[in-house]
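agent> Task received from the user: take the single chain below, predict its 3D structure, and emit structure tokens. No templates, no multimer pairing.
agent> Plan: (1) validate residues, (2) run structure prediction, (3) serialize to tokens, (4) report one or two observations.
agent> Step 1 OK, no nonstandard residues flagged.
tool_call: predict_structure(input=
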Amino acid sequence: MIRLFVPDSLAPTVRLALDEGQSRYLAAVMRLAAGDELLVFNGRDGEWRAVVESVGKRAVTLDVQAQTRPQAVGPDLDLVIALVKRARLETIVEKAAELGAARVRLVITERTNADHTRVDRLQAIAVEAAEQTGRLDVPQVVEPVKLERLIADWPAGRRLLFCDEAGDARPALEALAGQPAAPWAVLIGPEGGFSPAERARLRELAFATPATLGPRILRADTAAIAALTLWQAKLGDWT
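)
tool_result: status=success, residues=239
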């Protein structure tokens, strides 16, 4: 069944007037008609069954009927990723949403090979991935900041899995053994890796746990998928 993220509050008998983009998607792409059912969620009120009430040229109206799942809280896991080229970054955001990350934080490092990105486009990709994977929330994509700013503003109590491509750290599963479940973040560097100064700075942080993702050098998108998978398998909601 089609799932749709909406910003509105959800409750029985609520009527939703969808925006033009969502209306076009349901009417022109998915060919829904009055009386057809779909699922809606907003990240706060759980998942609800809704019925198409009317289909106009530019607007589709839904009638919210009954809750199908209560709101659930997923792992408190951030993916911190250095800016990379657009196609790879879009893949990373999509896979982070599929793998249960709560937030995707973008960071600028000394060797970052991209200096800007469209956060609104990345957020739309996160929404689409959440709709398709069945999760009840949408990961937030956060505007890029420099690495030093990220470290300076680091929230108390959040651990950091620093994926160190130098390869002399402990394997990730071993590094995560015995660690508390939440909150955490996973840090993936740029295609050129962290500079020696950045690597030394990260290694001295009390909240950081260096780890290796194996004997081969991974591209940023592969590394992000691997690290999130290992964290979920050891500390997340896969256990």
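agent> Step 4: summary for the user.
The CA atoms of residues 12 and 225 lie 38 Å apart.
agent> Done.
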